[in-house]
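Researcher: Structure prediction, please.
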Amino acid sequence: MSSIATDCGARKADCLLPLCLAMAVLAILPPLFASSAVSLLLFFIFILSIIWMYFTVSLKYIVYLFAMCTNVIGVAVCEFSHTFLPELQCVSEFSGSLPLLIFSRSLFILIIVKLDQRTKYYVKIEEKHASSKIVKTILGLACFMVLFLCIASFINVARNPAFLSGMDRFQYSGQLLGIWGSIAAYLPYLILISVIGMRFGFRKIAIATIAIYCIFLFWIGTKFSTFFTMFGYFALVYHDKLRDITPHNKLKVLASIATVLAMLVAFAVFAYSVAGHSAVGFLGERLAQQGQLWWKTYSMIEPGVWFDEKQASVEMGALFENRSISESVGSVNGIYGIMYLTAPASRVSEFLSQGARYTEAGYAMAYVIAGSIGPVLFAAVMALFVYYSQTILASSIFRSDVAFSIIFAILAGYVQTSNSMFVFSQFFTPMGLVIVALSFLYALINSAEKHRLSSGGQLL
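Model: Predicted structure follows.
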């Protein structure tokens, strides 16, 4: 049965290859308006096909799918309209950057689909571990701990909401000092415990915790990012439940997901307008921000294939320089190098000094280092990292391994940062090295246990 399923999965994935090959051809053509428009059309057909044919895979990697789509749409906004980009202090125009980015992004998700289709899931075995008395006791205590931290964190900020002071989350985070700053930094990971608790018998306390945490996020100026991270947790925790969903129910779930995303965007617009800014301006600016660094980098550097040894050396040296954002003023590695390349230096330095940075520079820096082949290679490598981090996180969630779930959620966050920012130093800190080592050890032990018990379990 498993071999038949694998064969069917392979045939479905092969149906996507013609689309990917067509996008590859468009990526090597001269930069024309028509080729960019066709690439954009093929990209959305490709994404819709992925979502429909590999629904559970799409849920497992929904954070990356969403980032891909917003990145491509952002570049399209820059390419097809004359939009003023305040962070770069320039007006966008057509440069032909879409086809290469679209092919690279599509290759990224295609590799993930191919890998995930060959992954054997022993959810029944893992859930048996999660149902043991000691595991449920630990999960229950952890859920109460997260509830206490959320309540305490909200009480700490209740008197000073961000929407009254006009601060965003980056500015407000500077007000959270000492233990409160540390708690706020780790709550986005700890809230995963509550989502796991909803699946494994602690629904009421989990709902209360998540509600309080959402209020806390709004209070400190969060408009979208962490809310969407929680949505990604829900999709990951429950994605296996929809493995055998019917087409009719699939449409219902997709409609629900679209509604949730629309509500998150509407909330972001509301939160932004409360601070006294234009809602329409917010939407346009946020969309363009997702693609502006790639668009500007491509428009400044002629297409071709090369290897920039100097920039590669800078990136290698930065692996062991784990600086905070505010300490990265003047840095030229990763996203910082792209920011200084594409925007006025004084504006970038001011932005970084506040603990904030732009977004989606991974493919741009890959292009700087290796030309047109850079984003393609970057997509292939990051697909492996993303597949590994999401799969081991899902396994720890199904087993209700609270401590390991948090550890691997942090690992997944590291990978997301690398994919978006081309920053890898977090892996080479003492904490990062321990997390990576633990993930390898966990994968080995878990694999051996599954192999031993698979004859008595059910393969999904």
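Model: The chain is about 75% helix and 0% strand.
Researcher: Thanks, that helps.
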